[in-house]
Structure formats: C-alpha cells, structure tokens
C-alpha cells in the first residue's frame, strides 16, 4: 500500500467539496494506492449470506454515483456502498453545504442527496469490473421534490437488485425534509410491505437509521424491520445533535454531524439495537470509526460489519490498510482467534 499523506494534507487546504471531487478524480486515476487484497483470515465475516474478506466498508455518500467502486475496493475495503441514489437526478442543496471541523475530527454536511439518479448509477454498476470477494451495495433514497416513497423505494429496489449484492433503504438523512419521519414503526412496516413484491431476487435489504431516534421508540422500530422481512440495519447515519464541547468554528452549521463526536452516540444505539434484535438481523456499525480499536468496539457492541466515511476523509486512503494491519494483533492481545468472536461481547 502506498500511503499519500502529502496529497491528503493538500486536500485539506482546498474547499471541502472541491477536495472531494479531487479525491474522486485521484481514485479514478489510480492515485489512491492499492492494498494487496489479502486480509488476515481472522477478519473474515459472513453476514446476510454474503462473505466479506474483512468487515470494513466505505459508507454511503462518498461515492454517490458509483464512479469509484473498484478503486475503493482496491484500497482494501471489505465492501463498498454506493449512493445515496434517488429516482431522478438532483443537484442537492445550495453551496456551501459541506464543512470540516478539524479540531473535532468531524464533518457537518447538508448535501441533500446530490446525485445523477438511479439510471446513471445502474449504467455504471452494469459496467463495473468487480474486485473478487468485495460485495457492493447500493443505498437508495427519495427525491426532494415529488417523492412518493411507497412507489419510489419498490421501483429502486427492483431496478437495482440484479446489479448489486445488497440494498439499503435510507430513511435517516437529515437533509431531505420528512425523510426521517419514515422511521416511525408503522411507516417502516408499510414501506417494507410495499417493497416485498419488488424483492424477487431476494437481495439482502437493510434499513439505515438515524442516531437521533428516541430510545423509547427503538424496540417497536426494530420489530417492524424484522417483521417486514429486512435482513439488517445500518446504525447510524449523521446526527442533528451538537455536543456543547465542539470547538470548530463551523460547529453551528446546520446539517448532519459525523466523525468523532458521533462515535459514542452511534455505538450506544448499536448496542441498544443489538439487545433488541438478539441475532435476528445483521448489524452494520457506523459512526466515528477511525482506528482498529474503534472497529473492535463496534463489533463488541453487536456489529457484524462496520462502515466509515469521515475517518477516511480525515486520515486519507492509507487508513484502511492501517486498520487491517492493526486489527489482528489487537485481537490476539484480547485472546480472540477471530474478529467475529468479539461480536456482542460488550452487551
Ligand atoms: C459528506 C457526507 C455525505 C454523506 N452522504 C450520505 C448519503 O448520501 N447517504 C447516506 O446514507 N449517508 C450519507 N452520509 C452518512 C455516512 O454514510 C455515515 O453514516 C455517517 O457519516 C457516519 O459515519 P462516519 O462518522 O464514519 O462519517 C454522508 C456523510 C457525509 C460526511
């Protein structure tokens, strides 16, 4: 793996959205580096009927239009989630809409599902040269204007099923008005019922949750997800909360907060979900991961798999290889033969 600390430092000096475009361009040119692809067998995971060489995935939003799935897979990620894609292309919210909070190890974004639409993403996925052993998922959302969730999500699921290994129903972006209301248990039940006939290929289906759901509402929600036939949950998306100790001058911007300040909140919710689900769902822990220890903490709180976004942006493309290197000795220190043996041990 060639690390690129210099280019990461440079990217941190330009406008964040421009930096993201440059990072995508760099990945397309093969500048991100290349992990040799072999993860320690102790990191292999089976979940949702899929095999993952390692459990560390890139979270949705980094590659909204499925343009760099292969370069991301070659960095060492164990799975890649593209999207969020919506039925129609849309430009998203007004600029500026992406803010770095370097002193807090965080990002605030109010991108608003800027993407080129499902047709463009599927055209790319149809041409994708797969990296063997790296499952690819697609995260699905609704347009800001003219959305009809009970029609849109089934259409998206049906269209995408033949081309990806798993699908995610995103109900948790804070930047699409009304979206998070779909997390109410009766509405989740209605949605999953509407989606069921579109799932002929039986691709694993996950629901992505917000960390801002009141703890009291969680049990009904998880039960509705299970009863509706979904296979897993991603816990969590970004938060609207703003811990008072944030130091960066952008900390009062509106939008979803991710990275370090989200970590404990999303891990606590993951543990709560794991206690309710009791093994009936695959769980993907997401929020604030930036080290091997963070991965282990999520697994101990019940995760089968993990994802990250902000840590990757902050620490650069070498982070994945570093985590893959650091995890096996960390497991040995704890007397664990396999990462999967740590699952739920903190509950
Ligand atoms: C700039 C940005 C854009 C994002 N866009 C999406 C998105 O389109 N769909 C989605 O489900 N999550 C999106 N997310 C949320 C991430 O997938 C992830 O759930 C969240 O950032 C927490 O993980 P992290 O702390 O590792 O970043 C986005 C996050 C960021 C920082």
Automatic annotation (TrEMBL):
Q: Is the keyword Isomerase in the record?
A: no
Gene3D superfamilies linked to this entry: Aldolase class I
The main location class comes to membrane
Does the UniProt entry include the keyword Iron-sulfur? Answer: no
Q: Which UniProt keywords apply?
A: Flavoprotein, FMN, Membrane, Oxidoreductase, Pyrimidine biosynthesis
**Which compartments does it reside in?**
Membrane
**Dihydroorotate dehydrogenase catalytic domain spans which residues?**
43-330
Which InterPro entries does the record associate with it? Aldolase_TIM, DHO_dehydrogenase, Dihydroorotate_DH_1_2, Dihydroorotate_DH_2, Dihydroorotate_DH_cat, Dihydroorotate_DH_CS
Gene Ontology BP terms: 'de novo' pyrimidine nucleobase biosynthetic process; 'de novo' UMP biosynthetic process
Reactions it catalyzes: (S)-dihydroorotate + a quinone = orotate + a quinol
CDD domains in UniProt: DHOD_2_like (cd04738)
PANTHER family to which the protein is assigned, alphabetical: DIHYDROOROTATE DEHYDROGENASE (QUINONE), MITOCHONDRIAL, DIHYDROOROTATE DEHYDROGENASE (QUINONE), MITOCHONDRIAL-RELATED
- What family does this belong to? Belongs to the dihydroorotate dehydrogenase family. Type 2 subfamily.
User: What this chain does, per the record?
Assistant: Catalyzes the conversion of dihydroorotate to orotate with quinone as electron acceptor.
Q: What is this protein called?
A: Dihydroorotate dehydrogenase (quinone)
* Organism of derivation: Lichenicoccus roseus
